[in-house]
Design goal:
The chain is an alpha/beta fold. It is built from 29 helices and 18 strands.
Amino acid sequence: MKRSPQKDEIVRALGPGGPLSTILDTYEYRDEQLHAAQAVMKSVKSKLPLLLEAGTGVGKTLAYLVPALVAISQGKRVVVSTYTLNLQSQLIEKDIPLALSLMPEIKVEVALLKGRGNYLCLQDLDAAEGDLLQSVDPHLREVKKWARRTQSGDVSELPFRYAYWSDVAANIDSCRHQECLSFSKCFYYQARFRAAKANLVVVNHSLYLHYLAGTTDDEDKRLLPEHDIVVFDEAHHLEDVATDVFGVEVASRDVSRLSDRLRRIKGVDINPDRLASLDETSRELFALFNADRNEYFFDDVLTAEHHVRLKDIGTRLCVGLKETEAEIAVATREADVSSKDRLEGYAKYAIRLREHIEVLLFNPDPGAIRWGDRSMPSGRGQYARAAEAITTLYHTPISVAPALRNLLWASERTVVLCSATLANSGGFAYVRDRLGVPEKAEEAVIGSPFNYKRQAMLYVPHEMPTPPKVPSESYTDRAVEVIERVVALTEGRAFMLFTSRRMLEEVYARLAPVSPFPLLRQGDAPAPALLEKFRQSPNACLLGNQTFWEGVDVQGAALSCVIIDRIPFAVPNSPITRARTNRIKDEGGDWFRDFSIPQAQIRLKQGFGRLVRTKTDCGIVCVLDSRLIQQDYGAEFVRYLPPASRASKWARVEAFWKGLQQSPEGEEAADG
């Protein structure tokens, strides 16, 4: 059979003896990478959606970039969407330049586009002098110096943390578009213009979904240029991001943030009694949700009397916001030029806030849930008062599949979803259901090229009891005993990944006084700083949750052990999980098999994937959850993890580790 020209181009770029083999010193031909690239090329050619899982070490980024470049050479435009900023940076700084070096004859214009809040607004920066708090902040002068030398205006380049960044960042409310005096120098619109001219645009999932939904205003509909192909890398996060984008939320600090900003504008007289009344009404509203739990449905905490009061207070709050909008309009007509644009922005913010409250309280969607949570503020800005918990109320779709069917899958674009952890139990039934993926979508599960049998061992201690719902003292003591034994064998060099902050803290409290190895705890420093310290500290152990389960790449002997406290099932009592499992039950499904197990399988693969990142990495993954070997469903988890050696008895673990130290791979890894 005659091969297509596109396949020939891919083989030339990625195959044996191709340019990749001469450019990369560490080149090793990977048949899996070629198969992944050919699957993407087939999708582009057929215009059918593709679900692609490419295991660690496949090189999935090049596997979709090379077909993307072939498509660009044929006049198509491609958008690549990621979940993390880290992957965006890696694409722009490393992966795309490498792909272009493989196919230098293809003319490509590349652009990176982030959400508005990442870019400095020159108009709002000028207006900061008129802010009673910002004008006396010593960092304001440094921000202005940075503004004169930065090319991008991207906050990621700001060499310090500015507490008032949200006040000087580009935002849709105060944006004057072409009417702004700084429009020709606007960092955000310069990024938009670059994206409009580019044929390869890198964005994030949130921005892309906002573009699809056009939820803010007509500007979002023009956020990206027309394109033929979209690739979602880190696609296993798409449902969570869509849940946020297609929902509505209002926080207890939102009204006070508006009134505080109005009070801080010099020379503008907004009735202080009205602002005080607005703040008080907001406090009344959120006081109804002063629950003794972190997350809850409205009906979990509101009595019948509360529901009546909620409507009354909500009505008064919406009326107050509408009156404030009118007063801002009057003040805008009388304000000087420097204050006028900000006031118009605050009026838009008040309108959007009122509309969100109306959705939450008066116009709920039967396909959505209303729920709330209480949390401590993060950061050190003026609104992050350590003494005040923040209550946030949400109107969240139970399923994002209908919206994605209308907005994403109904388009004529080629859509590729890819991740190292996208499938469960060897297939895509779960992700198809959650994201409304059409039946016609193609599928490809491509395993890792690594020799997991030789490089890694999965250790599930047989003596560990079934994890209790809430960690008991005796259970935690037993877990710490196993952890100490494992890290003593590997001489530290361990990630300890937890499914709850509580368990992390309890283990840390027991280890800290006795551990011979440095302990690094998530939250004690920013994640990048902790990771760098881990890399630079021989024998360190890092205790983390959420952040360190994925997207973290530590190669060599610095990471020789990953310890996972339990199977990462979703918290069953969280409102979103309850709503989604209840819907599955109502439709006659098995919520545990259809929802909880697939979700946890994907998450466990992510944690496991921290250990082996190259062909010379080796070590032990220890899961402190005996359900993996004692429950029927545990076998299904293990079957679809990377095919490592397995052990439940300590003697086998010691023998495996000894073998690693004596093998060429182990020696190479130990030398770093």
